[in-house]
Specification:
Elements (H helix, E strand, L loop, with lengths): L1 H51 L3 H48 L4 H37 L4
Length: about 150
């Protein structure tokens, strides 16, 4: 029994980093889902404003904003999917670490592929997140151009 515990401790130590990564990506997901919800809510508000608009120019400006928000919502959905896949890949990495130890099987290649997939997905998600911020500034510029 003591031998199994002794073998398990290095695996627990190695899996600590990926577990912390899951926590960090989880916080990013929280921020991303909040941005997604706000974009959806703002689109709904713009639809009401377009319906109530009496001026064609104002309605066209609102439609442009709505198109940008819709593009943002699609981008954020992709970003959330990539971040979620990142968590999935790191969870498979941790599971592979434990399975390899318990079953005495060399899963090093699977572990490396999953970890690399996690990082590539996370980096892609962060790039998309930055693109979303850029699009949100574009929409803000349209909305405030008469006041700046």
């Amino acid at each position: 029994m003591l031998d199994n515990q002794t073998n398990l401790f290095p695996i627990l130590q190695v899996s600590l980093g990926p577990v912390i990564l899951i926590s960090g990506v989880g916080l990013l997901l929280l921020s991303m889902t909040n941005r997604f919800g706000r974009a959806i809510d703002r689109i709904r508000i713009l639809v009401k404003e377009i319906k109530a608009s009496k001026e064609e120019f104002e309605a066209s400006q609102l439609k442009i904003q709505m198109k940008i928000l819709y593009e943002r919502a699609k981008l954020i959905r992709l970003v959330i999917s990539l971040a979620s896949f990142s968590i999935f890949a790191i969870a498979i990495t941790i599971l592979s670490l434990f399975a390899g130890q318990v079953l005495k099987v060399d899963l090093q290649v699977l572990i490396e592929i999953c970890f690399i997939s996690c990082l590539v997905s996370l980096i892609s998600s962060l790039i998309g997140f930055l693109l979303d911020i850029s699009l949100s500034l574009k929409a803000l510029k349209l909305e405030t151009k008469n006041y700046l």
